[in-house]
Specification:
The chain has about 90 residues and is mostly helical. It has a domain of about 40 residues. It is built from 1 helix and no strands. The longest helix has about 40 residues. The two termini are about 60 Å apart. About 0% of the residues are buried. This is DUF4834 family protein. Keywords: Membrane, Transmembrane, Transmembrane helix. InterPro entries: DUF4834. It comes from Hymenobacter volaticus.
Length: about 90
């Protein structure tokens, strides 16, 4: 009985104190490794703020400049909705 309690106590201490530290260390290592892969693949650090796009100072204060206006599609004739079929409700017990 004493041997069981001693083993139970040691396992509970490991689960309570050692496992969270070990898991934190593993997760931090994994995140750092993925950050390095991302930096190599895309050439940027995901934890840094993105660079600001160059500002165009030609527009005055309070004015909006639109670079692209999509072409307008021809309006399709709206179909007139006559309504659906009437379904009588019957309560089933």
């Amino acid at each position: 009985m004493v041997k069981f309690l001693l083993i139970f106590f040691v396992i509970s201490l490991v689960l309570r104190f050692v496992l969270p530290v070990l898991m934190r260390w593993l997760v931090v290592g994994f995140v750092k490794k993925q950050t390095r892969r991302y930096s190599q693949q895309f050439g940027a650090n995901p934890f840094e703020a993105p660079a600001e796009p160059p500002r165009n100072h030609s527009a005055g204060a309070g004015q909006v400049r639109v670079d692209y206006v999509p072409p307008k599609q021809q309006a399709k004739a709206a179909k007139h909705f006559e309504g659906g079929d009437y379904v009588d409700f019957e309560e089933v017990k």
